[in-house]
Write a structure and sequence with these properties.
Number of strands: 0
Structural class: mainly alpha
Largest sheet: none
Strand content: under 5%
Distance between the termini: 32 Å
Mean pLDDT: 84
Helix content: 55-70%
């Protein structure tokens, strides 16, 4: 990552949108809308962390998407939470595997507001 002027590290980007995780999980069931919402959440995560090594398209590749969703995505979310000042780790791998859109939306809410308890 490139440093900011003055020798410090570049700060986080724009904070993600706060979403209702339950509604996000329900809306993901609508095929085209679900893809758009999931892509939007991943893009917000990448924009916030500004990590050029994070592959946004990993969830589209068959077989690789399980590795991406269970290991790479929670690691990136944990990094974003630390950048936002939250002390909580990402949701469990089990939640990302079973109800990924809910877990991602809930974690992004904590990135947007570290005191979020919803």
């Amino acid at each position: 990552m490139m440093g900011a002027p003055g020798g410090g590290m570049a700060g986080p980007g724009q904070k993600p949108t706060i979403r209702n995780p339950i509604v996000t999980l329900i809306m993901i069931c609508i095929p085209i809308y679900g893809l758009i919402v999931y892509y939007g959440m991943i893009k917000e995560l990448k924009d916030f962390t500004q990590d050029p090594g994070f592959m946004m398209w990993g969830w589209l590749i068959p077989c690789f998407n399980m590795y991406w969703m269970l290991l790479l995505l929670p690691a990136q979310v944990t990094k974003a939470k630390q950048m936002a000042g939250s002390q909580k780790p990402a949701r469990s791998i089990l939640l990302y595997w079973l109800i990924g859109p809910y877990a991602l939306a809930a974690d992004l809410n904590e990135v947007a507001d570290p005191n979020w308890t919803g």
